[in-house]
Design brief:
about 325 residues, single chain, mainly alpha, disordered N terminus
Length: about 325
C-alpha cells in the first residue's frame, strides 16, 4: 500500500512539473493551449533523456494525453482540434516509449495502438511518422520482425519523409534492422544505403525535440546493430566506434547501449577479455541511475554470448561475479 501511494505521488509530481497549469478551464481552446501542452511534451522528452523510461514518466505522459483529448471538445476550430489530437498522440507515444525502454512491452503495445488511433484523427504526417517509428521499435523489441518492417515502411510513406529527409533516413534505418533480423543481407545493406543518402540531404531546421536523438551518430549505432545481426562483427565494431565518437555527451543511455553493442562485436570476434573490459564503461556511464530495461536485456545478451563463446575462461567468471547483480536487478 505504501509503495503504491509513493508511485502515485511520484507520478503526480512529475506531471505537475512537466505540464504547465492552465489559469482556468477556457470556454474556447486555442493555439496557446496547444503551445502549452507541447512545451510539457518537450519537458517529458528531456526527463526521458536524463532518467530513461519509468512509470512516473509513463503516467505523466498519459495525463498530458488525457488533457489534450479533453480540451479538443472545446476547440475553437477544426484545426485546433486536430492539433490537440496530434499532441495527444505525441504524449501517448511518449508513454509507449517509456514502456519500451523499461521493457514493459505489453503495456507499450496498448499505448502504441491508442497513439495510432489519435494520430489518424490528427491527420498530421509528423505525428504519424513518430508513432510508426515507435511501432517499428516495439516490434523489433518483441521479435515481430515482419511487423517491424511493415511499420518502418509505413513511416517511410508518411508525407514528412518527403519534406524532411532526416525523418526518411530514420525510417530506412528502422527498416534495415527488420531486414537484418530476417536474415536478408541484400535488403539490409540497401536500406542502410538509403538511410545514409537521405541523411546526407537533411539540412538543419527546427524540429520536434523527440527527433533530436537521430543523426550521424545514431545511424552509425543502428548500422552496428544491423551488422552484428548479420554476422559481420568487424564492420559492427567499426560502426559502433564511429557512433561513440560522434554521440553528444548528454546521451549517456545511448552511449551505454552502443558500448554494449561494441562489446558484443568484440566478443563475436573472439576477444572476450577486451569485450569484458569494454562493458566496464557501461556501468561507469550509468553510475547513480537504475539501468533501463532495454539496457539490462542487452547486458543479459552479452552474458549469454560470453558463456556460449568463452564458458570456461577466467574473464567470464570474473565478469559474472562483478556485474551480474548490477545488470540483473528488476
Amino acid at each position: 500500500m505504501l509503495r503504491r501511494r509513493f508511485c502515485v505521488a511520484a507520478a503526480t509530481a512529475v506531471a505537475a512539473a512537466v505540464l504547465p497549469a492552465a489559469d482556468s478551464r477556457p470556454t474556447s481552446v486555442g493555439t496557446s493551449d496547444v503551445i502549452r501542452l507541447r512545451e510539457g511534451m518537450d519537458k517529458l522528452t528531456a526527463l526521458d533523456q536524463r532518467r530513461g523510461g519509468h512509470s512516473a514518466l509513463e503516467r505523466a505522459a498519459l495525463a498530458g494525453a488525457a488533457e489534450a483529448v479533453g480540451l479538443q471538445e472545446q476547440a475553437a476550430s477544426q484545426t485546433i482540434r486536430q492539433r490537440l489530437f496530434a499532441v495527444a498522440a505525441d504524449y501517448t507515444t511518449a508513454a509507449a516509449w517509456s514502456c519500451i525502454d523499461a521493457r514493459q512491452l505489453d503495456r507499450a503495445r496498448l499505448h502504441v495502438s491508442e497513439a495510432l488511433r489519435l494520430a489518424g484523427m490528427a491527420q498530421d504526417p509528423m505525428t504519424q511518422m513518430r508513432v510508426w517509428n515507435a511501432t517499428a521499435l516495439l516490434a523489433h523489441q518483441r521479435g515481430d520482425y515482419a511487423e517491424g518492417i511493415a511499420a518502418a515502411q509505413a513511416a517511410q510513406a508518411t508525407a514528412i519523409t518527403r519534406r524532411d529527409p532526416l525523418f526518411g533516413s530514420l525510417a530506412h534505418a528502422r527498416t534495415a534492422l527488420g531486414h537484418a533480423e530476417r536474415g536478408d543481407r541484400q535488403a539490409t545493406i540497401r536500406s542502410l544505403g538509403y538511410a545514409e543518402e537521405a541523411l546526407e540531404r537533411a539540412q538543419d531546421r527546427p524540429r520536434p525535440a523527440w527527433i533530436a536523438f537521430y543523426g550521424r551518430a545514431e545511424l552509425h549505432a543502428l548500422t552496428g546493430v544491423a551488422r552484428n545481426i548479420l554476422g559481420d562483427p568487424a564492420e559492427a565494431e567499426a560502426s559502433s566506434h564511429r557512433a561513440l565518437g560522434a554521440l553528444p555527451g548528454a546521451y549517456r543511455r545511448n552511449r551505454a547501449m552502443t558500448t554494449v553493442d561494441l562489446a558484443l562485436a568484440q566478443l563475436h570476434q573472439g576477444d572476450a577479455e577486451q569485450a569484458c573490459s569494454t562493458t566496464e564503461d557501461v556501468f561507469r556511464l550509468m553510475s547513480g541511475s537504475p539501468l533501463p530495461g532495454r539496457l539490462r536485456v542487452q547486458l543479459g545478451d552479452f552474458y549469454r554470448d560470453l558463456l556460449t563463446l568463452a564458458p570456461s575462461t577466467q574473464v567470464a567468471r570474473e565478469w559474472a561475479d562483478r556485474y551480474r547483480s548490477e545488470w540483473s536487478l528488476a
